[in-house]
Structure formats: structure tokens, C-alpha cells
């Protein structure tokens, strides 16, 4: 592998190389166990004599930074103590005045490195059930396609095959009719929100969003300088009458309100569309996990009801495949299409073509539909197991909120239990539970827990919740 070192002048060459390699090991840029180029390769690369690089390697080996294996090469030593991370930036640093320095921790839902044994974290899917063999075939296909390509930048809106696959999937599965030309492939839903805000909201203008709502959406709107106005939700979804008249953009999750779970009623959907048309605002419909419906009939998407061209429909493969894939898409109202493509191009040219080609093949060959059917069945069983406990042995403490869609659901905590106390009690039983407090902005938080079941199987759901119920019951008996 290449190691990037910079040589200034022709003086003290060994010292320059030594200091840079040592610093790389100490701050972790050169990882433990990583193979270094041979002394011959490095000498050639840097235009120095072989003796110079040999001397440097010998010194670093003698000092314990590197180790050599006869006939195999030279490696970064395994047991290096790392330097402490640099101290926080002083208040006078260039970044200190920027909006980024003041943002709350960007994406708070990242799971812990060492998760509890029974973890109900949201935002994860079950990779153990993903058909990696089929995916491998699709990736090999994508490699073959890529090997034939010209080695140049591609269409910022994405590869045609994937856009066609997405358009036809949406038409058949989500009743969202679009032409493939309208689909813009993004790095997850998050980039779709980023681009939509950039092209339709100026700094200082108002973006309205549901309260409680999806924190990463709030953060991206704020990061781009928008004034984010929280709007309450009730059992029918966003309270349209409470929208600020000057909102340029309204962000909603109509299929499965994030986090509470109820769908937006048809009446509210129509009221929101009418409001947006009257106020010249853009409505962003985030349909992040509507694929998994367990009860009732699907309600029409805002996009399919939109006759005035005010809705941007956003979707993602983060829930149907896994979040690391980083593929999402947006179908904007037609007049925003070219600005959105430009914003995508200016930001990152386009998304990775290899992932796009593999995903297109995965969809067009029917693997995606098959995977969705399998996951639907699996998640239905997990949801049923979860509800069995919430309505059974956990009923004295928790009440599930109505929710027919998705891979998480919320349970309200019955008074006088307190959210953080419940989470602490659960953690003591190795059960990972997650609260709702951080998702409310202007409304008083209603105590509740968000149960993700994308990453926990039926057996673990039963075992974890039975443990939790008996621990809570034990405490009740102690108190009696
Ligand atoms: C409301 C909402 N939107 C979107 C997403 C997915 O975002 P992305 O596609 O950026 O991974 C999630 C994932 O948890 C979500 O909860």
C-alpha cells in the first residue's frame, strides 16, 4: 500500500521520514497490523536511497513502532498506545463561530458499540437475514459493468437502471407514479433532505416540521440556516391549522409518523396539500418505512394526491436493506428537478455507480421483492411478540400507541413511572430501551419508549421483555 509522506528539500531525509511515520503510528492514521511498503518501494516513491529507508525502518522497529516478519514484510506494531485526541478547538478557532460548532450532536440514534443483550434500538435492520449471496452476484455484475465504462463522471441524478427500478417499484408497491427521469438517487433520505432544503429554502427562512419529530431532519434544516418551527401532532398527524404562515417547506412522515407511529389522516393530508398550495410551500413526504404494513389498507401517499405539484417524495433503502448502503431517492415537483440535480452535482457529483448498478440488478432480478416479503413476515412476527408483552405482562407500566406500519413502535409510560428510571431499570437487566424526551421540541415530552424491532429476533424479544417484566414486578412487590 502507499504511504503518503512529504519530503522538503534534500536535508535530513531520514529524520523527515522517521518523524512522519512515527506520527502516523501514534495518531492512528497507520493502523495496528497495517502493512507498510517495502523499504525498496518507499525509497523509489520518495526518491531517496534504499539505505535511508532501511535506517528509518530499523530505528522504528528498534523503538517498537513497527515489527518485521521475516519474508513477509514490515507492519505497524499491534500494541501501540495512542496519543490522546487533540483538545477541543479554542473559542477563537475559525470553526467556532459557524453554525456547525453550535449544532447538537448530529445523529443521536447510532447504536452503542457493545449493545445490551436485548437491544430495542431503532434505525437498524437485520443483516443476518439479508441474501448476501445474491447481493454478491449483483456486485459482481456491477463490477463487470463498471469495467466496461469510460471512467468518467456520470449523471448526478443517478444511473438510469436504478432510477427505472425505483420508479417501477414505487408505482407497483407504493402507488407513487413517476417517470424514471424524475427520480434523483441520493445518499440516503438524509441527503434528499439536505438537497431539498438547499434548493428551496434560504437561510433564515422557515421550515416547519412535526413535533415530536425526526431529530436528523431537524438538524439538517438548522445546519443549512433555516429557522425550524416545531408544529404539534395529534392522533391524526400534523396539526395543519398550527402551521406558521411563512413556512417555505413542511417536513412530514405521513405513513408512519416519526416517532409516534400513527398515519396522517386523509383529511389532514388533503388539508396540508391545500395549505401548501395556498402558501406556496414545498411539502416533503418522508416515506422511510412504509413498506412494512401489518394492518389495514395503505393510505394514499401525499405524492399521489398532489395535483398542484407541491410534494417532494423521499424514500430510502435504509429500512428495507440496511442503512450502510446509503441509498435513498427523491421525486421532487417537476420545477425543482433541475436545481436538485445541480445541487447533487455540486455536492458530490453523483452517488457511487457501483452500488447503484448492484442495487438496480438486485431489484430488476426480483431479489429485492423476495427479500421484502421475507422481512415482512419476520417483522410481523417480531411486532406480534412485542405487542404480546406490551399488552400482557408489561401492561401495568406501558401502553402501545396505535401503529400499523414500520419497524418500530412506541409505548407510552404509565404514570407515575418515569422514562429515565424505566431505561435505567431495563439496562440493569441488559435490555436496551430508548426514550422519547429528545424528540419533543416545543411540547412537554410525553414519557414513552421507542421499541425498534429491526435488530432483535422473536426469541430475544420474548426473553428480554420477560426479564424486564419480572424485574419491574419485583420492584412493585418490594414497594408494596
Ligand atoms: C424518519 C426517518 N426518515 C429517514 C430515515 C432514514 O434515513 P437515511 O435514508 O438517511 O438512512 C429514518 C431512519 O431511521 C427515519 O427514521
TrEMBL record:
UniProt entry tagged with the keyword DNA-binding: yes
HTH gntR-type domain residues: 11-79
Keywords per UniProt: DNA-binding, Pyridoxal phosphate, Transcription, Transcription regulation
UniProt keyword DNA-binding present: yes
Xref: Gene3D superfamilies: Type I PLP-dependent aspartate aminotransferase-like (Major domain) (3.40.640.10), Winged helix-like DNA-binding domain superfamily/Winged helix DNA-binding domain (1.10.10.10)
Coiled coil: none
InterPro entries membership: Aminotransferase_I/II_large (IPR004839), HTH_trans_reg/aminotransferase (IPR051446), PyrdxlP-dep_Trfase (IPR015424), PyrdxlP-dep_Trfase_major (IPR015421), Tscrpt_reg_HTH_GntR (IPR000524), WH-like_DNA-bd_sf (IPR036388), WH_DNA-bd_sf (IPR036390)
One Pfam match: GntR
Superkingdom as given in the UniProt entry: Bacteria
GO molecular function ontology, one term from the record: DNA-binding transcription factor activity
Family under the similarity heading: In the C-terminal section; belongs to the class-I pyridoxal-phosphate-dependent aminotransferase family.
PANTHER family noted in UniProt: HTH-TYPE TRANSCRIPTIONAL REGULATORY PROTEIN GABR
Name of the molecule in the record: HTH-type transcriptional regulatory protein GabR
UniProt source species: Cupriavidus yeoncheonensis
Amino acid at each position: 500500500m502507499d504511504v503518503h509522506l512529504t519530503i522538503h528539500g534534500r536535508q535530513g531525509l531520514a529524520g523527515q521520514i522517521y518523524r512522519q511515520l512515527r506520527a502516523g503510528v501514534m495518531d492512528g492514521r497507520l493502523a495496528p497490523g497495517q502493512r507498510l511498503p517495502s523499504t525498496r518501494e518507499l525509497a523509489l516513491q520518495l526518491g531517496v536511497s534504499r539505505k535511508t529507508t532501511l535506517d528509518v525502518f530499523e530505528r522504528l522497529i528498534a523503538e517498537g513502532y513497527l515489527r518485521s516478519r521475516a519474508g513477509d514484510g514490515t507492519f505497524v506494531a499491534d500494541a501501540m498506545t495512542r496519543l490522546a485526541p487533540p483538545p477541543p478547538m479554542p473559542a477563537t478557532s475559525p470553526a467556532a463561530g459557524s453554525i456547525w460548532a453550535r449544532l447538537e450532536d448530529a445523529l443521536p440514534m447510532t447504536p452503542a458499540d457493545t449493545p445490551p443483550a436485548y437491544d430495542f434500538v431503532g434505525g437498524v435492520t437485520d443483516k443476518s437475514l439479508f441474501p448476501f449471496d445474491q447481493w454478491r452476484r449483483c456486485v459482481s455484475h456491477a463490477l463487470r459493468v463498471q469495467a466496461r465504462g469510460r471512467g468518467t463522471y456520470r449523471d448526478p441524478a443517478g444511473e438510469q437502471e436504478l432510477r427505472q427500478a425505483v420508479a417501477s417499484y414505487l408505482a407497483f408497491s407504493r402507488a407513487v407514479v413517476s417517470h424514471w427521469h424524475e427520480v434523483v438517487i441520493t445518499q440516503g433520505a438524509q441527503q434528499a433532505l439536505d438537497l431539498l432544503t438547499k434548493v428551496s429554502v434560504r437561510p433564515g427562512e422557515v421550515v416547519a416540521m412535526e413535533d415530536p419529530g425526526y431529530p436528523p431532519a431537524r438538524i439538517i434544516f438548522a445546519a443549512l440556516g433555516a429557522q425550524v418551527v416545531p408544529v404539534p401532532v395529534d392522533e391524526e398527524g400534523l396539526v395543519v391549522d398550527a402551521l406558521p404562515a411563512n413556512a417555505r417547506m413542511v417536513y412530514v412522515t405521513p405513513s408512519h409518523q416519526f416517532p409516534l407511529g400513527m398515519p396522517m389522516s386523509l383529511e389532514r393530508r388533503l388539508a396540508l396539500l391545500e395549505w401548501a398550495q395556498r402558501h406556496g410551500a414545498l411539502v416533503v413526504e418522508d416515506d422511510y418505512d412504509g413498506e412494512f404494513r401489518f394492518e389495514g389498507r395503505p393510505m394514499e401517499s401525499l405524492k399521489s394526491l398532489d395535483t398542484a405539484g407541491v410534494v417532494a417524495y423521499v424514500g430510502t433503502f435504509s429500512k428495507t436493506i440496511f442503512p450502510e448502503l446509503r441509498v435513498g431517492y427523491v421525486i421532487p415537483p417537476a420545477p425543482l428537478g433541475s436545481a436538485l440535480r445541480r445541487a447533487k452535482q455540486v455536492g458530490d457529483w453523483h452517488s457511487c455507480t457501483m452500488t447503484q448498478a448492484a442495487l438496480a440488478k438486485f431489484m430488476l432480478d426480483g431479489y429485492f421483492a423476495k427479500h421484502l416479503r421475507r422481512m415482512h413476515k419476520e417483522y410481523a412476527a417480531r411486532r406480534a411478540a412485542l405487542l404480546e408483552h406490551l399488552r400482557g405482562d408489561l401492561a401495568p407500566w406501558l401502553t402501545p400507541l396505535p401503529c400499523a406500519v414500520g419497524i418500530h413502535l412506541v409505548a407510552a409510560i404509565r404514570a407515575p413511572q418515569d422514562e429515565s428510571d424505566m431505561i435505567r431499570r431495563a439496562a440493569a437487566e441488559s435490555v436496551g430501551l430508548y426514550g422519547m424526551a429528545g424528540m419533543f421540541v416545543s411540547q412537554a415530552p410525553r414519557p414513552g419508549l421507542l421499541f425498534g424491532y429491526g435488530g432483535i429476533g422473536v426469541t430475544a424479544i420474548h426473553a428480554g421483555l420477560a426479564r424486564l417484566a419480572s424485574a419491574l414486578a419485583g420492584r412493585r412487590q418490594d414497594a408494596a
